[in-house]
Amino acid sequence: MSGAVDDTPVLRVEDLSVEFRVRGAWWPAVRGLSFDVARNETLALVGESGCGKSITALSVMGLVPRPQGRVGSGRILFEGRDVAAMREAELERLRGDRMAMIFQEPMTSLNPVLSVGFQVSEALRVHRAIDAAAADAEALRLLEEVKIPSARRRFADYPHQFSGGMRQRVMIAMAIALKPALLLADEPTTALDVTIQAQVLGLLADLKSAQGMSMLFITHNLGVVAAIADRVAVMYAGEIVEIAPVARIFSGPVHPYTEALFRAIPRIDREEQSLDAIGGQVPPIDRMPPGCRFAPRCPARRPSCEASSQALVEVAPGHSVRCGVRAPAGARAA
Question: Which terminus has fewer CB within 10 Å in the chain: N or C?
Answer without folding.
Answer: N
